[in-house]
Amino acid sequence: MANKWLGRIPASEYHADRFGSVPTLSASCAATIANDCLARAYHEHPRLGAASRESSKEQDEGTLIHAVLLGTMEPGQFVGIEANDWRTKAAKEARDAAQADGKIPFLMRQYERIVNACDRIRDALLREGIDFSECMTEHAALWEARATNGATVQCRSMLDAFNPADMMVTDLKSTDSAHPRAFRASVERYGYDIQAHAYRLAVDACMPDFVGRTRFQWAVVETKAPYVVAVYQPAGSMRELGRVKWEQAVDKWEHALRADRWTGYVDGVGLIEASPWSITEAVAEGGSYDENV
Asked: Taking the model in full, what pTM does it have?
């Protein structure tokens, strides 16, 4: 598979991963490998376990915010339902029908609130120098990574926004809190550090004349008033952490795919070490501790 841009394609097509003879590794799949295990990555991959996942209200809202701000809303992707809540039989039936048709249902009042909020968020992003109308939005790329043993690993990425003028990749995140402490926790919990590294590699692979010039930032937007916006870039320590975790995930993925062996949290019998704080607490309470036991 040659490194290439696929351009803007429907998210459903991208996530189905029907691009070649072998399953491809995405940043989210790599994050599952790093933060969970290979068995979970297999279970969730569309070409392997193909487990279906129900989206949450927050995820649906995030999808709508992305579509509005990035200008990528597909016809019929969202369905507004006239009801005060989901408790009535008619509302439930309309919701279920929309979901069965692969669409995302919203109560009209929720839909209108989010769309109106996006106007305020867009203005805040512009003040931070982010104009998605100048970017390639939701463009997908197929590219190759190398495992430590030299084997080729087929990868895929879908970038929220990429501006070739300044080689900046912007990933849009919607959240309850854009505070730096809260977002740092999200980066580590959901593997956004891996994503930051992988997306730069994807651009470098597809634009080899500009290798090393690609930059990355997160545009973090709050989904509740006053809709605070914060823009962050990964510091050197976070970039290095993302690199290490990505390369480890690539190696594990390559081996698992080749051997068709998808291990859980440990391969064989693992050891559970005592945490440093529990040892300190036991000693402080008058106990003795021998690390050679």
From this structure: 0.88
